[in-house]
Design goal:
The protein has 171 residues and is α/β, with parallel strands linked by helices. 56% of the residues lie in helices and 13% in strands. 30% of the residues are buried. The structure holds shikimate-3-phosphate (S3P).
Length: 171
């Protein structure tokens, strides 16, 4: 089983879909932001605040190297900027969770913990800037993705099942 790497914009549901995929498969799930938080014993928001974004990106690069060298049979969900690591394609099959910007924001706001979900994401604090970032990244997401999964208005279970079907077909 090759690793699956979930990429996509903040709030699109990478973690939620990952948790669902493990229910229907033998994959083990791992999240790059969680690894960074446990490695540093700091919240992502605090890392951005005290060490800055560049430092966070270096941590992502280190994680990417470790994933390539040591991680197998795993469903890896990533932070929205992780797709930029040089060795992304060497880690596994890259699956983009895709949805329009407004739908993603709607999704976050409809969550019971919406405030917390927004607060923990430094790059979602300014909605205009976040929209510009989305526009810039979407093309790049599509370029690196082996599989694109439209998640708009679909529940996690549907997304997970579609994902596994597409991965199987991809080989
Ligand atoms: C980021 C996305 C975040 C987190 C960090 C930076 C980004 O993860 O890695 O705040 O650059 O898009 P989520 O995609 O899980 O929100």
């Amino acid at each position: 089983m090759k690793n699956i790497i979930l990429i996509g914009f903040m709030g699109v549901g990478k973690g939620t879909v990952a948790r669902e995929v493990v229910k229907y498969s033998d994959y083990i799930a791992l999240d790059t932001d969680d690894v960074i938080e446990s490695m540093t014993n700091k919240k992502i928001r605090d890392i951005f605040e005290s060490e800055g974004e560049a430092y966070f990106r270096r941590l992502e690069k280190n994680i990417a190297q470790w994933l390539e060298n040591s991680v197998k049979d795993t469903l890896i969900s990533t932070g929205g900027g992780f797709y930029k690591v040089e060795n992304l394609k060497k880690i596994g099959i890259v699956v983009l969770l895709d949805s329009p910007f407004n739908e993603i924001i709607k999704r976050i706001k409809s969550h019971p913990n919406a405030q917390k979900k927004l607060q923990k994401r430094p790059l979602l604090q300014d909605i205009k800037k976040a929209k510009a970032l989305y526009k810039e990244r979407r093309k790049q997401y599509l370029e690196v993705a082996d599989i694109v999964l439209d998640v708009t208005n679909k529940d996690a279970q549907t997304c997970a099942k579609e994902l596994l079907k597409k991965v199987k077909k991809h080989g």
